[in-house]
Design goal:
8-stranded mixed β-sheet, disordered N terminus, 13 strands, 283 residues, single chain, alpha/beta
């Protein structure tokens, strides 16, 4: 017969021997409880946007921001939307882009999906990496969720678990939510579930890098990612950079190189399809 006393004793022993896991989305790391509320205090969403064929409509940006609210911490946390300048190909669309910006400004005043959102406007065309360089100046949290205006989050993922794992294991610097199965052909080396050190969530190690939705540390971005990037998308530099770094290397050397990139995909190798790409550049 299970008594209240026996149940309490069993619960005490469970928490004693398994102090990290508190609930499905609540973890204890070095005495700190990482739950949805704490995760919201530790992370900032940066959404990048730029002139696309659909402006001035919000057919891509609005669903993108709305989909974040599936994750309690992302619903609560601070958000930054950074607007790139106008590239030469859109020089004649300035009025449409201004209308687009005004619509977003109004949403920050009236729409719950755009609350707690700061807007950043780049004076000139700085491309994707340049927009991150501008937005990250305003970030005061140790973690960021980098997102694009045509990313749509398809399903829940364990954000507190991502942050708790990064806090416990500094080798995990970047966790990407894929648009396709994790074991797809996009990476330069077969993916696996080998993480150097502990992880509190399933992660798939990969040799590659994507601009699309990912959790990362601000330190990693400031000191490793952005210094490698010029005028362009981050993955142009990071994805090809890791390919060049591992070419002709032994597995032991590749394992060491991976520690610099710290790149993982959320979930097991067979997992994936967390993001729908609505492809704002084409429609």
């Amino acid at each position: 017969m299970v008594t209240i006393k026996n149940f309490a004793s069993s619960l005490f022993l469970f928490l004693l021997f398994f102090p990290t896991l508190l609930t499905a989305t609540s973890y204890r790391v070095d005495g700190e409880i990482i739950d949805d509320n704490r995760a919201a205090e530790l992370i900032t969403v940066i959404t990048t946007t730029n002139p696309i064929p659909s402006i001035p409509t919000l057919k891509h940006l609005y669903p993108a921001q709305k989909s974040l609210f599936q994750i309690p911490a992302l619903a609560k946390c601070k958000k930054i939307i950074v607007f790139d300048g106008i590239p030469p190909s859109y020089a004649n669309k300035k009025d449409l882009y201004d209308q687009y910006k005004k619509k977003v400004i109004e949403l920050t005043k009236s729409d719950s999906f755009f609350k707690n959102t700061e807007l950043v406007f780049c004076d000139k065309w700085v491309h994707l990496a340049g927009t991150l360089k501008e937005a990250i100046k305003l970030v005061t949290t140790p973690y960021i969720f980098v997102y694009q205006h045509d990313d749509i989050l398809r399903k829940w993922f364990d954000l507190p678990g991502c942050i708790a794992s990064m806090k416990k294991n500094p080798n995990i610097k970047y966790i990407h939510l894929t648009r396709y199965p994790n074991n797809g052909p996009e990476w330069y080396w077969p993916v696996n579930s080998v993480a150097k050190g502990e992880s509190l969530i399933p992660l798939t190690r990969c040799f590659g890098w994507s601009d699309y939705a990912h959790v990362a540390t601000v330190d990693y971005y400031k000191n490793f990612v952005l210094p490698q990037c010029d005028h362009g998308a981050m993955e142009w530099y990071m994805h090809w950079g890791i390919k060049k770094a591992i070419e002709g290397k032994s597995q032991q050397e590749m394992d060491r190189i991976h520690l610099d990139y710290g790149a993982y995909l959320y979930g097991e190798p067979h997992d994936g399809n967390y993001i729908h790409h609505s492809d704002g550049a084409r429609n």
